[in-house]
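Why run this: before we spend reagent on co-expression, it is cheaper to look at a predicted model of the complex and decide which construct boundaries make sense. The entries below are exactly what would go into the expression plan.
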Amino acid sequence: MDWMNQAAVSAQKSDAVFFYVFGLSVVFLIGITALMIYFVVRYNKKRHPKAEQIDGHVGLEIVWTLIPLVLFLSIFYYGWTNYDYMSQAPRDAMAVKVTARQWSWSFEYPNGKQSRVLFAPMGKPMKMEVRSADVVHGFFVPSFRIKIDAVPSRTNTTWFQATKVGSYDIECTVICGVDHSLMLSKVIVVPEEEFKAWYFGGEDAPEPGKSFRAAEAHPDLKDMPQGLAVLTAKGCLACHSVDGKPKVGPTLKALYGREEQILMAGTMKVVQVDDAYLRRSITNPTDQVVRGYPNAMPKTQLTEQELNEVVRYIKSLN
Amino acid sequence: MSTHASTAQPSYLVDTGARKGLMAWLTTTDHKRIGLLYLYSMITFFFVGVGIGFVMRLVQLTTFQKLISAQTYNALFTVHGVIMIFLFVVPGLPAIFGNFFLPILIGAKDVSFPRLNLASWYFFVAGAILAVLSLFTGGGAPDTGWTFYAPFSLKTGTNVSLAVFAAFVLGFSSMLTGINFITTIHRLRAPGMKWFRMPLMCWALYSTAWIQLLATPIVAITLVLVILERFFGIGIFDPSKGGDPLLYQHLFWIYSHPAVYIMILPAMGAISEILPTFAKRPIFGYKAIAFSSMSIAAVGSLVWAHHMFTSGMSATANMVFSLLTMIVAVPSAIKVFNWVSTLYKGSIDFQPPLLFTLTFIFLFCIGGLTGVMQGALALNVHIHDTYFIVGHFHYVMFGGTGMALFAALLYWFPKMWGKMYSKKAIYASWFPMFIGFNMLYFGMMILGMMGMPRRYYVHLPQFHTMHVVATVGSWLLILGLVMFFGTLLYAIFKGEKAEDNPWGGVTLEWTIPSPPPLENFEEIPTITHGPYHFEQQEAK
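The model came back. Tokens follow.
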């Protein structure tokens, strides 16, 4: 089954604890249920018309306090030691800065290379330094059994050492707004040489793992108009289309000059979209919400130059 | 029954005061009527919550074509959580059965503060109305999940402030009920009703009341801080103003984890009442059960941060909270062993309340064991914030508290309304409910192990099969619920008249007529022995 796919050492550590607890649980559950059914049948009033008035048994109470206590403590200890391994990255791990924002992931490597999916060499420890640009998110790779929250103002870390080449889901696990469930990415685990070729290669170096992720090709920022590149990098296109298709937010196609009904400070207004409107919508999105759309857009930090490029690009869509 | 045929007092269901009909109910200070007011309002909210759950499951049935938008879906799971937690599971058993039976079980005529008791119900209704209003006013229904995690809850344009204020008002209802019960148990026990002669339901309500009283103010203050932060930007939780998002999580869970025990302790109390009656013998290990209730209340207040193992707390904090979590599992295990042993060498009269009690034990064991899995750190990292936890807490809250509430309802139904329901119809409702329940929530736990995160509007294709299984399970479960409550509703109006003591119970509620008279006892009884004393009955 898919969830048995152990693709990292941490997965083996976590699963070992799972099987230990699961085994104990099954024994306990079957035991309790069988005993319950047996008593109900054996001591049914037809077979056993007179109940024996038993108040309790101190010895038994002590036994069934101590045995569970010991078992629970063993579960604690096993869970703790394996977690200790899972939470402490080795010193030679490559540190990748992971930035979560509504609703996308980005990864930055020690040499400054950036990507939208996480490339990782097989068998090498990789340390994730997870931050958030806005609200709390969760960085989760089910096949590695690792998860750490991305909390604004903090840097949380986790690490993994992949044991299988392949492509694995990254999912956000903390509710972060309207497109929480689309806040996905991939870990692409490739042989070390292939990773190095990309990592040490120039800007034109081919991205690793193309063979098994052809379908997931993502647009190359270099070839885009600058405004579009900003929109792509900041994740805006998750909600706003540039081709007129309806999404979570209004489309950007033919937006400039359009008349929009907006909710502003509690009242409905009609405005014509101009530079000032666009800038305000980006820097303070909750101030003016277009009628019929949810009040869901996060504030996005853009430099003055990025803002200019975005506005220019939106104008060009008319 | 015959001994009470001559009773002069009319039943509490008959209006005897100056006001009649609805007004008599809305101004009542009778603990039994207030219990029923809670029951009717809560079952209504329960079905609203069920309806929302039904729609959420339908959304997961389709991978792409969606019935509702993502924003609406996020609002639905938030509202489902708020309704089910704050309007049903947390107040449920104490407010309904605590109100109705606590005074009767200890031989009192009413609670200590009857007017305050009615005020608690009005707080409850006011909170409920505010919660409903928050859906349709301001920026629309809140979309943060019932946990309102900062800073998202501070930034979202939806109506978080009003929803949070509703929870704040509901907190008052909970605290006032807590004060009332503590005082009642201390001051109004009948002569001879020593602490260790109280039925175990009273012990459970007593420990619950202390948590309600001590933990609820913390969440109330936290929620006020969220409102202040949203309106005035005071910067307690918002990191861009120097606040700490983790502080919010700590404050939230300092209440909301003990709240889990507010939910489950009275359920355990009700189970401890039902078992002796149908086994016709005393509960096994009375003191062990009473003390385990108190120790759950105490240790349960120290485990809150096990909701935050992946939040970036220090490894030491994680270790300590994992250890304490394991320790709090022990008293729950003790209770399970004692319950099962209560069946040993009894003379078991198998009736619908017992079926639901055994169902409770089975489902609660699964809920508890999967809780232990989450307490184990290495495993928690994988299953935290996935469908595993969603499945787990439904086993505890619904399979535990919910099933116990159903069992208690079946057990005390003849006493409360003086009518008996169709036992066959109840047995018939059990099958779809039990099968549907396990398909739905065990399915969710498998999804969680596979890596399906919670609160997802769309799911990745590998999760689809299990989602279909869970959704079909939800239909069976709802079918069972409708049959169950349909049967009871029919019985209220058309049921046969019930005897005063249809199950052969020996606690005080079975010594008075069904339905009970306004002041419960013609004469306050004098207690000479423990609560589950069956020898006397055999002698008759």
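Chain B touches chain A through 96 residues (CB under 8 Å). The radius of gyration of chain B is 23 Å. Bring this page to Monday's planning discussion.
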